């Protein structure tokens, strides 16, 4: 084993190791609303087909997904760089439109 390798609690780590929360046992069950249990892929397809049949919009559309993806991407960038990230104006404008249209 290399000199810089640390073995603690059965986990081998090295210089690039990032600290993680230790396992704290089984968590609590997340409550699922009535009628929403099942395979997520099947439920997504069933919801899509239901939207077509009823001429309704989806519960979460592409704008909401875009805003969530942007938040995750910039959050990861901030973590990697170790600093705050200021969102560009076009991102803020699009996010504001997304939040107002999903309300």
Structure description:
- The protein has 103 residues and is mostly helical.
- The chain has one domain.
- Helix content is 47%, strand content 6%.
- It is built from three helices and two strands.
- The chain has helices spanning 40-54, 62-81, 89-101, and strands at 6-8, 11-13.
- It has a two-stranded antiparallel ribbon with strand order 1-2.
- The protein is flat, with a radius of gyration of 21 Å.
- The N and C termini lie far apart (56 Å).
Mean pLDDT: 76
Query: What kind of assembly state do the chains in view correspond to?
Result: single chain
H/E element sequence: EEHHH
Helical amount: 40-55%
N- to C-terminal separation? Answer: 56 Å
Question: What is shown here, in short?
Answer:
The chain is 47% helix and 6% strand. It is mostly helical.
What keywords describe this structure?
3 helices, two-stranded antiparallel sheet, mainly alpha, 103 residues
Please render the helix and strand layout as text:
Blueprint: E1 6-8, E2 11-13, H1 40-54, H2 62-81, H3 89-101
Antiparallel strand pairs: 1-2
Helix pairs in contact: 2-3
